[in-house]
Amino acid sequence: MTRRTLGLPIAAAAIAIMLTASARADEVTWWVTEPGKAKAQALAAEFEKENPDTKLKLQFNPYGGLESKVLIALRSGAPPDVIEVQTSWIPSYQVTGALDDVGEVIAGSVPLKDFVPATLEAATVGGKIYGLPFQAEALAMIYRKDLYREAGLDPEKPPQTWDYMIEVSKKLTYTAPNGQRRYGYGIAGGGPEGQGNTLYRSLPYVWMNGGDILSPDMKKAVINSPEAVEAVKFYTDMYTTLKVAPPSTLENGGLELRRLFMAGTIAQYQGTPTELERFAQDAPNLDYGVTIMPHPKGKETSALLGGWAFIAPKAAKNKEGAAKLLKFLAKPERLAEYTRTFPTTTTAMGLPRFADPRLEAFKVMLTRARPQPPIGSWLEISSAYYKGIQEILIGGASVKDSLDSAAKTIDAILKK
Amino acid sequence: MSANAKEHSQQLTGVLTHPGKQNAGPGAYARAKRSISIQLDRPLFFILPAIALLATFILYPLVSTVVLSFTDSSGSWVGADNYIQVVQSDRTARATLNTIYFVVASIILQLILGTAAGILLNERFKGQAIVRALTLIPWIIPGIVGAMTWAWMFHTDYGVINSILISFGIVDEPVRWLTNPNVVLPALTVVNVWKMFPFVAIMVLAGLQSIPQSLYEAARMDGAMFWDEVRYITLPQLRTILASISLLLVIAGVNSITIIYAMTKGGPADRSLITSIQIFVEAFQYFNFNQASALSLMFFVVSTVFIATHRWIQRPRARGAGHQTRRQNRVGLSSCVAAACRGVPAVPLDGALVLQRSCGTLPHPDHVASRGGNPGQLREGSVRLERAALLREQFGRLAWVHNTGPDLRDTCGLCLLPVRFPWPFSVANPHSHVASSSFGSVDRAPLYLPGIYEPVEFALGIDPCLSRPDPATQHLDADRLL
Fold first, then answer.
1. Which CATH superfamily is domain A2-138+306-363 in?
2. What is the pTM of this model?
3. B197 near B138, Cβ under 8 Å?
4. Among A343, B32, B64, B67, which residue's CB has the most CB atoms within a 10 Å radius?
């Protein structure tokens, strides 16, 4: 109110924005990501054919800065009707109650039990479903078969346990005859998207070992528990003491690791299913294999569930249109069409598109994947965790001390 | 229409019959109307649009930031809680130290490099225009482009810098430019310096172009070398512009998010975190607008205090320096001139400066002759010159600094000023000196004292000896002096 009385220009600008962003009653605004452009356009054409009196307005957003962009849109009071977001962002968006429960709408198109349980779980806050998950993936270990052979290892028997993984990584770390330094295993420790990349690559080790960042009731930090400390030590030792990870570790995220892998600097790393498309495009002759993430002997492997979903903001103008669009999208074949990795429904998983044998390990990892805890301050919490990891990688701080300090920071965040 | 009018009159009657306001109503209305109509002509009315804009875009955000900093996310008052949390956070201390390091180191290097580049670019050489244009490139290209390019160059494994260093055998292991906690901040500072020094250079260049050439000519007459010119003319003349630049650089430095955010995001583990990034992350990634507001207010206050201090130091310094110069001049002038009046130097002298007052030229017979004039027609000037030549023996060395005008007739006065020269000057014979061709081409060059370079007219103007510029006494004074 005060804003409006004080700032006529602001009001004018806001109205201008609303005029462009908002819509006529028969228009639905749909925000998708840039990489989904072609598929979204095809789906939009199909949707408009099915609903001749509804117009679909698409906007394409790049990945960079998307999380805050959507949050700002949600808080602006005039958000688009349907938005494509990472499933893990949903809890933080729902903190202020900005989203609509879409459970019923989805159930109108596809039985909820057809979804891979973890994917719906990731979109659920307080028992209600706030997003239509369409994509799910988990990281698996990708390794260079040619480098395995050069180091005298059997490329068909990649490591399945931590101990053997270290042994193999040590063997793969050497200076090649052409002077190139080679490293056994690339871990993420930084880079432009370092926080998320490091979380996805290191937290599964903690989980495999029985540790976690937060206690199950999400009231307390447990990242300094002995299990977690042991797992983080395993992860960081590869760089700090064993030196089987390259010197650039602190600036390597997923993208950098893929580059180093293609260049042969690292022989193994954790990658997403999308990496395979990139290899096919950038390095078609790359001789590589994919296997599950090695785990401690006698324990099970684990992964952090990644994925994307469509949300329907509560403040959106055209709710009827949003429901129509979500209902349209929530067909297993359309979800499977739109996903860039794996679909979220069991029906769609059986489609031939996902039958590539190299995707097998990713599928196994997906069944082991757990979502991030549904807590609003997760980004800040994981930032404290990330900082702890970096402190260890920089050197000078013991694993235990770093994680103690991270736990302290996280406890303070939880108290806010 | 009529219904409206009726309603209107009823309203008026209502107002009129209202007890107590019977007279005040229309009177107040008239007064308000009058005061508005008066205001229409007042300055306030004309600056109202500007004030409205400022209030909207500066005042309102400022006030709402203050309010945010004292409330929590639900909008209820929490007192200083946000401030306490911010101050207690380890990040704040680290970010503050990093900011100070980053800004101070950047500014020092930017000023040194920028000034040097500006002075060099001001020299005449072949391809000057191209070099000037090339120097500007870092400043012109978008910050994000520069930052990403540098990030690539700094990369530990495939960065070109490490590759060069290793191939030349300068280092054995790749340097972790952006991830070694001891190296990351200096590396980022280098990028910031690279980005901003052309700005300093171009400002210095502009400043240099406004320094009158006559200063350099005068100095060169006195035998000043390049470094003397830089030390005694260029830098003192650039002082005010350098002060303004350094203020701008401070502002740019504390606000420079782009480079660091694009290259390290403040990492690794906050080792390159600066306060502006901390505020940004706190507000737009964690959405803790209240703590971010508290932090930015503290940042604002510190910056304001710093800038106010800077201005405060700078202003008295400029004025103080002026005072000092003038005082020195006055002391120097009055005592020296007084001493000269008595014919005895009060202080050991390096030489004497013969100053010609304001309006004319100091004609030398050879000079006049070389211009086709008749030296015999010269009036007092030539006489004085001879006297000056005599005085030269008395004072050892003698230098001439003088006004040349297109018109040789306007000799109004002459003053002998014994001074200490900041550089050794070699001209022994004032005659040959004055006759040098460069003097002939300079029209009405102002007089400057060496090393101080305040116009001498000005300095003389406050001199008790020569304070009242009455042409008659002026001649007398000058005559008495010589």
1. Periplasmic binding protein-like II (3.40.190.10)
2. 0.70
3. yes
4. A343
